């Protein structure tokens, strides 16, 4: 699992990074989220995901490619569009890590393919 000792630590990392990038992109102060359980971390991840959807919908396309913000831990600025893409790809990597580990822990992995997700989400409900 690399630098993390548990699935919970990976989820905590995900929610911290995702919420941090969103706060920076929106010009807000970053706050440290401190979920106590996996369920709380998962709910926070879902809440941040919903906030990203709203943020992306609200962006003006020209501003998304031109307006920049500083990412202090990288030491350089990125555009608002890059500020959506980076946490998205970063989170996908770690969510894949989790999905691969779940079967080893007695759980079931999750399909991570976007097209399959679209097909399943658009399938008629039984």
Which sequence of strands runs across the widest sheet?
1-2
User: What is the assigned CATH homologous superfamily?
Assistant: dinb family like domain
SSE-based structural type: mainly alpha
The CATH C-level name is Mainly Alpha
Question: Terminal Cα separation, in Å?
Answer: 38 Å
Pick out its properties.
Four Helix Bundle (Hemerythrin (Met), subunit A); 5 helices; 6% strand; single chain; 126 residues
How are the SSEs ordered, and which strands pair?
Layout: H1 7-25, H2 38-58, H3 61-66, E1 68-71, E2 76-79, H4 80-101, H5 114-122
Antiparallel strand pairs: 1-2
Helix pairs in contact: 1-2, 1-4
Give a verbal description of the structure:
- By secondary structure, this protein is mostly helical.
- The chain has a single domain, classed as Four Helix Bundle (Hemerythrin (Met), subunit A) (Up-down Bundle).
- Helices cover 61% and strands 6% of the residues.
- It contains five helices and two strands, in the order H-H-H-E-E-H-H.
- It has helices at 7-25, 38-58, 61-66, 80-101, 114-122, and strands at 68-71, 76-79.
- The protein has a two-stranded antiparallel sheet with strand order 1-2.
- A hairpin with a 4-residue loop joins strand 1 and strand 2.
- The longest helix is centred in the last third of the chain and has 22 residues, at 80-101.
- The chain is globular.
- The N and C termini lie far apart (38 Å).
Concise overview:
61% of the residues lie in helices and 6% in strands.
């Amino acid at each position: 699992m690399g630098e993390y000792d548990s699935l919970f630590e990976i989820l905590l990392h995900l929610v911290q990074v995702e919420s941090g990038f969103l706060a920076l992109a929106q010009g807000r102060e970053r706050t440290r989220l401190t979920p106590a359980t996996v369920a709380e971390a998962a709910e926070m991840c879902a809440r941040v995901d919903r906030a990203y959807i709203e943020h992306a919908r609200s962006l003006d396309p020209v501003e998304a490619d031109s307006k920049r913000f500083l990412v202090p831990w990288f030491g350089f600025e990125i555009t608002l569009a890059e500020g959506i893409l980076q946490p998205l790809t970063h989170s996908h990597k770690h969510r894949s890590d989790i999905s691969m580990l779940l079967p080893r822990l007695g759980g079931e992995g999750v399909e991570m393919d976007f097209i399959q997700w679209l097909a399943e989400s658009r399938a008629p409900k039984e």
